[in-house]
Amino acid sequence: MNRRRFIAQSSLVAAGVLIAPYSFSKSSNAVFPVVRIEEKKRRFKSKAVEKVIAEVKKNIGNKEIGWMFENCFPNTLDTTVDFDMIDGKPDTYVITGDIDAMWLRDSSAQVWPYLPLCKEDKDLQQLIKGVIHRQAKCIIRDPYANAFYKNEHKLSEWHKDNTEMRRGIHERKWEVDSLCYPIRLAYGYWETTGDSSAFDEEWFEAMKLVIKTFKEQQRFDGHGPYSFQRRTTSSTDTLPMNGYGNPVKPNGLICSMFRPSDDATIYPYLIPSNFFAMHSLMQLSVIAGNVKSKLDTSEIDALVKQINNGLDQNAKIKTEKFGEIYAYEVNGFGSFNLMDDANIPSLLSLQYLIPLMKDDEVCQDTRKYVLSEDNPFFFKGKVAEGGGGPHVGMDYIWPMSIIMRGLTSNDDKEVKYCLDTLQHTHAGTGFMHESFYKDDATKFTRSWFAWANTLFGEFVWKVYRERPHLLA
């Protein structure tokens, strides 16, 4: 996917509103401009979210972080959601920001931080339930697609891609995590609210397709039905070998032809996504075992076991400097790719997505590798250090990687470093961006990227609850 990229130099764009650059003081008396979209234009209003914003702003000493939190945490609700009731069920369409399309991954991650507030805000609960319903419709429409339109008759700009492209689909890049995120959101919703009514026949029909698609892409019996080619000068936007990607030796892992960045994989066994798939399937098995459905838990559990065995046998690589770490991609033949990408799931994010991995020694050593210059996409510059990826190019740091570093750290000094870095690299906009140049944060891409904004809000809220002294 070639997401539209914006470089801010003479002017800044925040949440779709053009504002002039301004200088700001770092003193406690600094006055920060109003850049949050005006109230009458906000797409959805949550009393619970506004209550949290007011509390955080009131109680922390760092007023700039408080201002950024006020802008970023509600950005998904303010600017990207379209809520409706369809056939008596809540339905929520969520765009990622500056592109009018709904990614299964982004939409799940964008509303995830609001889950803890559902019990005190039933409207917010309905909104998230609507995302779950909408995602089920999307999966049923095409489990191999990564992004969809609300209008099921709309023709995509990518309609000439050589794949089974249908109307209503924005892009058809097969990414394992696209089918993991909806399970994560649904499980988190159920665990938080106790409401199992979201698991209707349509949702379980979608889950059957998830299982079917994962099994097809284990490729024990040929390539499966999916292939993809695009006329492009970018090798990361298309697949080699007649659209099936580079070869693999079947071992139980699931092939992901594209990464969470929407860039093509080099080796199709994408390790972070396979860990995520295993964890998501375990959650699906729990749901199926507790909610009346026609899903076969033994089939799910067998699939989990196959992925686990594949990871045990293929995911770990011995290095002289870091010991045993997880590769980013492998192919089953012994080839591997050591790197990390800022998009989530990443190797850095494993402890965030899968709490059980917090005590995993290999995961901890992998984290040390990811946050070192041995990782080809970890950049250090004059204004910051952090992870990036091929999607934007060399020397561009993704705030998402800095946020994830903070979310997965147990060290006060490191968490504070992440907060300080984010505070000093938003280029005066009060919002997060897709990426910024390592030596000059005013050179950034995507000024309206709601996922990064909401993730920053999740990070600050977590620090506020667990390490409030870092916000003093």
Protein traits:
3-stranded antiparallel sheet, disordered N terminus, single chain, 472 residues, Glycosyltransferase, 14 helices, 38% helix, 17 strands, alpha+beta, 12% strand
Describe, in plain words, how this protein is organized in 3D.
By secondary structure, the chain is of the alpha+beta class. It has one domain: Alpha/alpha barrel (Glycosyltransferase). It is built from 14 helices and 17 strands. The strands form seven sheets. It has a three-stranded antiparallel β-sheet with strand order 5-6-7. A three-stranded antiparallel β-sheet has the order 8-11-12. α1 packs antiparallel against α2, α8 runs antiparallel to α9 and α12 runs parallel beside α14. The radius of gyration is 21 Å and the shape is globular.
Brief overview, please?
The chain is α+β, with helices and mostly antiparallel strands. 38% of the residues lie in helices and 12% in strands.
Looking at the structure, the CATH topology is Glycosyltransferase
Termini separation comes to: 41 Å
Assign a percent range to the helix content.
Answer: 25-40%
Number of structurally distinct domains: 1
Give the helix/strand class: alpha+beta
Strand line-up across the major sheet: 5-6-7
Q: Give the overall shape.
A: globular
Radius of gyration: 21 Å
Low-confidence parts: 1-29
Name given to the CATH architecture:
Alpha/alpha barrel
Number of helices: 14
Strand tally, please?
17
The average pLDDT is 93
CATH class: Mainly Alpha
Beta content comes to 5-15%
How would you sum up the major sheet? 3 strands, antiparallel
